[in-house]
Batch of 3 targets.
Target 1
Amino acid sequence: MPLQLTHHQSETDLLQARRCLMDAGDVPPGLVDDTLRQSWLRSRHAGLSPVDVASEPPLCTPADLRQTLASEHDLLAHARPVMSFVFDQIRDSGNVVVLADNHGLLLDTLGDIDFATRAERVSLRPGALWHEHDRGTNAIGTALAEERAVVIHGAEHYLARNSFLTCAAAPVLTSEGRLRGVIDISGDHRGQHPHTFALVRSAARMIEDRLFHARHGHDQVLRLHAHAEGLGAVGEGLVALSDDGWVVGSNQLAREWLGLPAMGGGTLADLTGLRVAQMPPGRTLRVRAARGLSLFARLDWPRRPAIHTPSPSIAHTARPASPPDAAAPPRTASHASQHHERTLDTRLAEAHHRAQRVQAQGIPVLIQGESGTGKEVFARALHQEGPRAARPFVALNCAALPETLIEAELFGYVGGAFTGARREGAPGRIREADGGTLFLDEIGDMPLALQARLLRVLQDKMVVPLGGNKAHPVDFVLVCATHRNLREAVRTGQFREDLFYRLNGLTVTLPALRERQDFDTLVAHMLADICQSMGRTAAPVPQLHPGLHQALAAHHWPGNLRQLHSLLRTACALLEPREVAIDWRHVPDDMQQELQDATRDARRHADTHNASHGPHRASGQLESDLGASASSLQVPNLRRLSQQTIQQVIAATQGNMSEAARRLGISRNTLYRRLKRSPE
């Protein structure tokens, strides 16, 4: 169906059509555009009244909104930069840019304050539902129903209270051709501009292409354009191919040019007459599509690991290895389980969104959080979704190397600079990260002398290798991480104040596992990754025994995600081939004792509390499950292991007993009592 750029619906025709709808329940064909007529009829059949102003606009609950925002994090992550770009084009024009999911739920808005205030009256804000069944004819809901871009102007809105709006919306489709969401531009009907329709369609294509590259990071990508110079630019056709040439995804332009069905299908040979082996990667060729269209084409190999790669051992095992990217080390299974895109934790999702926006402008990001919370994974995700994704990601752990080696590793050295130096020298991590991202983990442990050198590099954008005198220009985005309180380190003279302010463009704090809201989701993804890496693909992904699940969910997890992953991996290794449930007997003995102690402490605390506050309920299924399954599984030195854990947490909190007790999930009295025990 051809798309309509401007409207020719007169106010008289609209008024007459609305009267017919109200009086006869139908609109005579030809009186208004047929798309509008069908939408009005759908709205009426949904039970909506055009003139009902008494009913409250439908909104989802705050809890549902939080869950949806978390589950749609990848859509938001790829759409928000495009929304910012679009808004920059229409700033001060009295418009708002809106993103909705495939059910018409508004996820995010960006707009001029004056119009946004008016838009509040009709709930044009996150959490509002704009499906046709909820709001009648409107650009978002009608674009979803029609699965194409539409403009709904003024009185064309089914509900009279929305008639002050003019809205243009375009659907966002996945590489399989499924609806993913809608991008919309809304404003006052008196300020309608014909270019808004083209702008919103372009925005949808930009989001689709970002989603395409994120989805098909492991696939070969065929780029198509009518002009050779258009390859790699906005407006190109994209086709994702498996190693044997089968189409596994495409964008709308490619489907249009090649006559592809929405869900893909066929091979490269079917589409262009060429096989994968006949298209050298990176070389531009002219091809003739199935419909006779002459296009320029280039086949690109994957440039980096896919965002969703669980681990090197299990990523797309049916496909041959792609050419490696030396600058991007393989991710571990624990990394994948921590990936931000799998989170339903709103705090973590918001941290990623904020960090992504500032890093896109070259502003340094400082990641704080306890050990094991996934700081490096967070940094890699920022890089892989940022504008420098095709360039190197280089990581250095400042706490993992002796002080004498950090300088050479970071700044590089010339041949013969020190005893044992390679004859040809080494460029150093800073120069390796040129054009990409440099990640310095545990920056708080960097020696003071090297802090001064790093500050000079950040100021001058030049680096001088150890033993040399020639400065090399460098361009990189800096991301740092630490579990230490850098402000306190500055106060005590352990960290340079001037460097701290250079690093602290934006500080984000990753929540500890015990503070996160997505424990169930994390466990499910970890188990799926672990089973696949172990080759347990025939059996279903195992589930946790309810009592064990409850105990694990309530645990304090001093080792955070790393500790949880290690526990689940051990449990999966102990499963028999046909077992589909992880029970207490699959849990390491020391962890059983730790969980049992924590449960007893929690019960004593509850008993003490309830003794002074009235009757209480039974202690519940958790203790009975724990006692029945673990009472006979005592192991030597469990108390010593428990004491070691306590001492480690106290050291990590620098002797703050209240904080240590909170991290351990016990009261201060219990902590002091445990410290008085002598290990056996």
Note: Residues 397 and 441 are 5 Å apart (CA to CA).
Target 2
Amino acid sequence: MDAAGILQITLYCAVIVALTPLIGGMMARIFSGERVLLTRLLGPVERGVYRLCGVSPDQEQHWTRYAAAMLAVNLLGVLLLYGLLRLQGVLPLNPAHMAAVAPDLAFNTAVSFVTNTNWQAYGGESTLSYLTQMAGLTVQNFVSAATGIAVAVALIRAFARRSARTLGNFYVDVTRATLYVLLPICVLGALVLVWQGVPQNLGAYTEATTLEGSRQIIAQGPVASQMMIKHLGTNGGGFFSQNAAHPFENPTPLTNMIHMVAIFAIGAGLTFTFGRMVGDTRQGWAILAAMGVLFVAGVLIAYGAEAQTNPTFAALGLDPALGNMEGKEVRFGVAVSTLFAVVTTAASCGAVIAMHDSLMPLAGMIPLVNMMLGEIIVGGVGAGLYGMLLFVVLAVFIAGLMVGRTPEYLGKKIEAREIKLAVLAILVLPVGILGLGALSTVLPAGLASVQSGGPHGLSQILYAYSSATANNGSAFAGFGANTLYQNTMLGLAMLIGRFLIIVPVLAIAGAVAAKKTVPASTGTFPTHGGLFVGLLVGVILIVGGLTFFPALALGPIAEQLLLGSGTLF
């Protein structure tokens, strides 16, 4: 590690901390129904949307109706996107004459973008038309992000309200998240990206003749508009198969910083929104501190591993000061590439600027751990906050057991129902990662996708199913995902990783909202200080370690130990 790399990491963290109260405060006002700067401009649009859809903004929903509305909107999204993928060959805005997407790949892609996973078993510029990219993928980038924000806001209201039966209105929350948060930032951000050289057009692909005299097709299209929501909404799906490593998606150091800041901006901001809406901003800062501890630890471990040259190459005389440049863009280097990898997997955004399959084993383990812990280290927009609050519920329950009294959080008693639902939601990840992933280690159809042997091959399987179940979407490469078996199984993992967590979260919200607030007493465990942050981080690491350490020991840890002896996979 060098001073320049540490400075870049420090600068990034400082920008995120500075933006947190600004964005978080804005969202608190929006979802509390207060007027904001854009209300005069967008208020008529909002009311028009409600009239068009027959929604009464003053009519709130019980958690069951809120969940039903969320599931209905997302089911409709899957069906519409699947139909668009299957029919794109006969639809307009298809200058490259892309054919219809195969049924299994269309299913996988539709589920992927609706669940905010954005796993791509295809090359975007060689598979999808402009219409599919814009009306299909980009639209779902907004809807899936707004869904996550809405669920998080519903859970915040549950803790903020005193003995309420409702959580708000899902349609209203999604509309406000889209109109007042996602769209304005994306419009401004996309214009900046265009200024920096990111294409935004509907022209046909350009044919060029290289210096060697060969023919080259240069893909382009409506890239900037998709790039901004791709990162702001922690979606991650690239317009090009090289994702954010492609110079059209990420042409300059400024665009790279914009992408990274956008990935964390809303997730970090929601912690402040939480604190503001429950009436104690210290609670939000405590949650962000726990996220920050896990994030910084991951960055330092990964950067420390990547700053070392592969021992096999070092034995051949390669300068150790170069670090591990395999699979990286020279223009980004080791420090920024490592930071980007940790940011995207901490925030459930599958964007990449370097190939994770080429990371040193210990560095490659950090993205894996980030996903295995769930969407909690900032996480997907909304999903990071409600994922972390599941562990908060578990932590205060353990604290209550230690002091011998009924656990409370923000004046709400945490009882058996909430604990059962939280544990049920937390267990979804090991079911998808270890359960479905295990099938790919034994079934011929699953093993056919693995291109490496030994522990690295196991890491490829673990990464694919961690990415799908945690709704991340990044890939470890070296894994043939576009098969009937993997498209189906990974699609199933994405569905359970999204909705089998959201439904218990909303059930917890319904139960907590109905509880009366209990005044704090001398025996109340404070949940805004360093002691609570340490307990929360400890509970997360213990639960994650007990669940996934054996699998990690057989994968990246074993590979790291064998690397010292010169064994490569």
Note: Residues 282-563 form one domain.
Target 3
Amino acid sequence: MTTRLALALAVALGATAPAFANPVAAAAAPAATPASANPFFSESPLPLHYPQFDKIQDSDFAPAFDAGMKQQMEEVEAIANNKAKPTFENTIIAMEKSGAILDRATTVFFSLSGADTNDARKKLQAEYSAKFAAHSDAINLNGELFKRVETLYNSRDKLGLDAEGVRLVERYYDNLVRAGAKLSDADKAKMKAMNAELAELGTKFSQNVLAEVNASYIVVDDAKDLDGLSAEQIAAAAEAAKARNLDGKYVIALLNTTGQPALTNLTNRDLRRKIYEASISRGSKGGEYDNTALVSRIMKLRAEKAALMGHPNFASYGLGNQTAKTPEAVNGMLGQLAPAAVANAKREAADLQAMIDAEQKAAGKPTFKLEPWDWAFYSEKVRQAKYNFDESQLKPYFEMKSVLEDGVFFAAGKEFGLSFKQRIDLPVYHPDVTVYDVFNEDGSQLAIFIFDPYARASKRGGAWMNSYVSQSELTGDLPVVANHLNIPKPPAGQPTLLTWDEVTTTFHEFGHALHGMFSNVKYPTFSGTSVPRDFVEFPSQVNEMWADEPTILANYAKHYQTGAAMPQALLDKVIAAAKFNQGFMTTEYLGAALLDQRWHQISADQVPEAKDVLAFERKALEDSGIYYAPVPPRYRTTYFSHIMGGYSAGYYAYIWSEVLDANTQKWFRDNGGLSRANGDRFRQTLLSRGGSVDAMQLFRDFAGHEPQIEPLLEKRGLTGAGN
């Protein structure tokens, strides 16, 4: 969610404490800059320092990494060994300005490694993961640097700083302590070794996941077996096969989730089962992509690292700088939701089983028990029966460009007064990418927005936002932010028609983009989405509420061929069905969130061996009360990239943030809904403040009260669910 190498390194390490290896920098390049055309050795001359994608070569990264680390270490040593008395300017601000080359290079590198990787980038990621970890540790564990920061921390209220300056001193001190600055020299050496190994293991895990999801496609010989898919989907499957030199066949590609889109429509139950089993077995069936040994080792190292820092487990260590604060708080919230979610899922399952029984009886066939590969297919049938519509009726009204420009952008205009203008003069890293200038109501430029919608083999799964340039008064920079989705690309010449889930995801990710674009802080450390992990999803979830707001929906939900508005009756059905299948969706999410907590709430001696990883997973789900065979976790451990990266012990953050989101949606409804006045309040009190104010204080400043769980239970249809 941010471009700072500090967080990129934390992701690589599987850590939660940001390192100080890459404050967004304003320093000039070192005098010994190699005489080359490397685009990272100076700021981009493009508008808002937009990256020079047309000039960046893979061969530029390693020289920039090496020179950038050398430059920053020289800067840090100069700060740490400065004979002058520590001041805010000569220590904290100097650190904020350090590492210019490294910042530019790693920002682009880690962004492209997620959005458009290749063999060269994979090799670089593997080669440099331990080097970056060592660089980060060399800064974080520098004893002289810590002494200077500690001196300022102990006198922070006497430095004449404003609230944001005091908070910056506190952030530096807390992060250095969390990184191990107070450890003995012997323990610092242990920490460095752990971080280096975790970096390498994390990189290997993520590369295995991407490689296997690309390798685990399902080949179908006969188009008859694809009954239920649309003509466009079948054509896309044929193109996918052709791209793999399987002319005349069809390929169903997988996404990095347990559930797969094709399961909703395929009538062939055997094929559904084959797709499902291919999905859930990833990372655990032996061979080069098996992740069980990596999981075991990563979890053991994390537990040992937590113990070294004086914590009983990694969750205790990792949650210390989040709004939740403790594992007990997370367990309490998840434990409150789990019984209601499973009870709701079981009621939904009864409806699905009744549909199966009736259908089989009518066909004169024996019935069968509902299985995970049946859920999406029959829930769609039940939805059709209950609400008299299906996804195929909706998709013609959700053409992607219309959703983005006439929906997402239109809502931002209504709420915040923003306007957007596509530009075709800036270089892009892939032909599918679109770029927009973003303007405030007074015509001043707010940001540049990059939109990268399609799935491809070079792109990791899921949807995310990142910043290429982060706002701060210190640097004078304005934001350049990007949204990435994984929408299947249709055959050439065909429109991109979205599912309702893809529509809401587009609104969701743009909520992150708004958080980054509205940033109005002094210091790079606090820019944009640099907030606790269990707060960062909150603004994005709020933005989802405009997807089915009547005036917004009416503006973008138009038939891609005729331009006709979605019929009001169909629109009403979409809104009425908002809580449909929430038992399933909540249970599959909670399964993953609770699994994450169980892995990170054990000590090193409780970590299972590789052969027992899946058994541990099953028992963890059962002990948490969330195990329900027809509804597996959204991610199983062996392809759970979130928790092997930056969301370790933090996948709960989505629903924790949703508590705040549900309260905020209620606030909007109670105060007149979509309006400029409400949007301006949200922007000024919360979205623009980044991490410069305590996250929960930002919520209270906006909402005027403490968060309450009841709006979430209502939103998810869990009120009165019982056990």
Note: Residues 327-362 form the longest helix (36 residues).
